[in-house]
Amino acid sequence: MANDASAVSDARSPAVSDNPLADPFSPSADSALWRKNFLLGAATASYQIEGAVNEDGRLPSIWDTFSATPGKVLAGDTGAVACDHYHRWEADIDLLVSLGLEGYRLSIAWPRVMDAAGVPNRKGLDFYKRLLNRLKEKGVTTFVTLYHWDLPQHLEDRGGWLNRDTAYRFVDYADLMSRELAGTVDAWATLNEPWCSAYLGYGNGHHAPGLADGRFATQAMHHLLLAHGLAIPVLRANDPASQKGIVANIGRGTANSGSAADQRAAHLFEVQHNAWILDPLLKGAYSRDLFELWPGTEPLVLDGDMQTIAAPLDFLGINYYFRTNVASDGGHGFREVPLEGVERTQMGWEVHPDGLRDLLTGFRSTYHNLPPIYITENGMASDDKVIDGHVDDTQRISFLKRHLAAVDQAIKAGVDIRGYFLWSLMDNFEWAFGYERRFGVVHVDYSTQKRTVKRSAELVAKFLKERKARI
Ligand code: FCB
């Protein structure tokens, strides 16, 4: 399914050939993307790009352990070297700046900056200080995620996110980082995609730490959200000028038929992917439908937790990739019914820009207090090759153009969306899929670490240059 090239090219050709003379990337003339204050940037994450896992006092993370376990990651790949960004960060930032990207979303590796006793690791901290200072010098807006899945292994050894104490350790970490880095960070995100940490990490075992129990997933989620809610006031106190938020991945579920059972299944799919996280954050309560789907998995919630979790946010980061078509499973749940003949990416994910627009406009009606939104990740994997020094990533160009159009439609429908980060700045370690899946707008040759700017990045750069010239 992932490499069904015929489905990809068949479905893609109409969109690309709409107007063969038009710039295949440039947004329409009336698009909100032309506005100066709409931030356009790129995103990465520490474990996916840094490498240098044993350097300068970095401790092991759950992803070091998981990727070293046979059978967990495709081809046995690990993040030990990745893009070697820890050593090449200066050139990588120069590249980002040369593309005219205005924002950079990065994450900090918790095991790099403090030890098991909470003692700061100066060398690790200095790495991020240098990086962020350079970004500031270059005028790049910085979005820093505190937790993009690389939990210190010593915390997992004490129960990880199943242990409430991990939430308090996270607050110590957030406290240290916001004291040390205040002034260089424009926006702090506590967590990246708690759905993935909880569900893939503790619910089905596809991600580190590889545990598989439904009750674990909901309890891990509760402690993740608690960690977030406890950290927000600490970040506010230490770094008042920055924005504070969280990043959630959202999933579009559509019903396979008009039957009431299939409609309910699509609703439950979205409850599991979206409301599980957004309801506690924005309504201060778990959706009761979640426990219809997963009976008997209610987490242990202490007095005051839900209020803590619902701490006001300055922004909500949204990551969107694909839509899932579902039908009723005959019981209380849903099952996926993959659609035939639709465009898919190298991941096998369906390309469905309308899903992004529809979810965003839906959230606007569901959550009366929906904060300003940044699309903190959107992008696609393709099997990109360097040919004569160039990478012609046609499907990505069309993908980005259509998703940016969907963002524009959501803005026109009244959703307050302030920026968009491409996932990713460069090809990197794609978790359980290792290095095979290439999400970057910059190609990385892992044998030489040579970076090659893909055609998509050239076109984004061209647009940004044109926008700058117009304003
Ligand atoms: C998201 C992750 C990110 C990357 C993309 C493809 O779920 O946040 O690290 O792997 O998917």
Question: What does this entry look like structurally?
Answer:
The protein is α/β, with parallel strands linked by helices and 471 residues long. It has helices spanning 5-17, 46-49, 62-67, 85-98, 110-113, 122-137, 153-156, 165-181, 194-203, 214-238, 260-283, 288-293, 305-309, 353-366, 394-412, 455-470; strands at 39-43, 103-107, 141-147, 187-192, 243-255, 315-328, 334-336, 373-378, 417-423, 442-445, 450-453. The chain has an eight-stranded parallel barrel, surrounded by seven helices. A hairpin with a 5-residue loop joins strand 6 (315-328) and strand 7 (334-336). The radius of gyration is 21 Å and the shape is globular. Bound molecules: beta-D-fucopyranose (FCB). Beta-D-fucopyranose binds next to loops.
What's this, in brief?
By secondary structure, the chain is an alpha/beta fold.
Strand order of the largest sheet: 1-2-3-4-5-6-8-9
Q: Label the structural class.
A: alpha/beta
Largest sheet: 8 strands, parallel, barrel
Our Rg estimate from Cα atoms comes to 21 Å
End-to-end CA span: 44 Å
Which small molecules are bound?
beta-D-fucopyranose
